[in-house]
Predict the 3D structure of the following.
Amino acid sequence: MERMKNNSVQVYDLIGIGLGPFNLGLAALADNVDGLNTLFIEQSSEFNWHPGLMLDSATLQVPFLADLVSLADPTSKYSFFNYLHNHNRLYKFYFYENFFILRKEYNHYCQWVASQLQNICFSTKVTNISIADNDSEGKIYHVEIHDIETGQREIYKGRHIALGVGTKPHIPSSLKIPDNLPVYHSADFVNYASELADKNNICVVGSGQSAGEIVLELLNRNPIKDDKPHINWITRSGGFFPMEYSKLGLEHFSPDYMSYFYTLSENTRQDIIGCQDMMYKGISKQTIADIFDALYRLTIANSQQPLTMLANTSLDSVGKSISDNMLLLDVHNCLSQTKFQLKADALILATGYRSADLSILNPLASLLKQDSKKNYVLNADFSLKISAEKVGKIFMQNNSLHSHGVGSPDLGLGAYRNSVIINTICNRMVYKTARKTVFQSFGVQNEFCY
């Protein structure tokens, strides 16, 4: 959008920082609220969601109803259904008969929504947040920005802030990887895939969805070139397991469970999170089935199996073999403690993501409460606990696993969280946030006690 004039004078009701699906959904829902003045700031030049993993056949792991707005406002013009209608794909989708839409189409849908919104600034980096002057409604946040294209610096003023800075690729600090080696993170796979075309031996580390999708892509790419394993797939986990996807298990990704989880003690929440990995860290059953089917097809007539899968196996270090110029991987079996080595032409680390840098909050650190694990403490409405008086809210998008539970990063709860945020800053029920949305009763609820 064109940069707004007189930003030193104008005070926004809400300023969003970062534009992933969650803040984009918030921008879309806010656009429909009369009198609500918002601005969303993104340093990239356009919306693009995980472009390095935009594989042709990759799908979302949630149904299409987990779009930006539908679970808050099914009548919104920014719904996925309306996107299909506008692109003459509604009947095609009807015959497609698949709840899980392709990741490429979801990304294009989000770009379509962003192109219609007038409350978004791309190519703009936030450099600082501070609490400054007052007006009749209280203290105001000053958000300092840097226009990446022009170099211009400005200050935007807002009563509330929504932080949607997302995540960044994570490589375990214990892995000391020398420079200039063919070691990649799964997040950028599409960008370096062509470099793997002449690699005979590739090692993939990790047992989540990204690892599974990459292994499947490699299996489908080229037939085996010699009698060595084409791919070594290793993970510290006990196996290559599917995510929990039973219907009652999915009810943990609901507003009801999120509200219940928030009421538990900090220690109890930490214990529960440690036991719920398979609800969001495994591989989809479809991807596992596709990998198995590919292996079955590639081993007809007892052809050499192109994939070696090693569970309970940890990567300890990465070096380079002087004799043949290959990567030398030191690994060990986590159960037997047996140490051995693998060789590879390339190493792909599907080791997940961590929360992006939140140092932008450092100027406010003395006002923000942290728990025993140094996580920011959140209120039930997803805002940070702030000790200052008469100051607006700072809402956290996604970064609330420790306080609101396993559904925090799930696209299906984005519209609910955004409904809570809008209702909070408007101080009224703009969007309905229903209770009893699932069949289970989490915790003790009197209406279920007889």
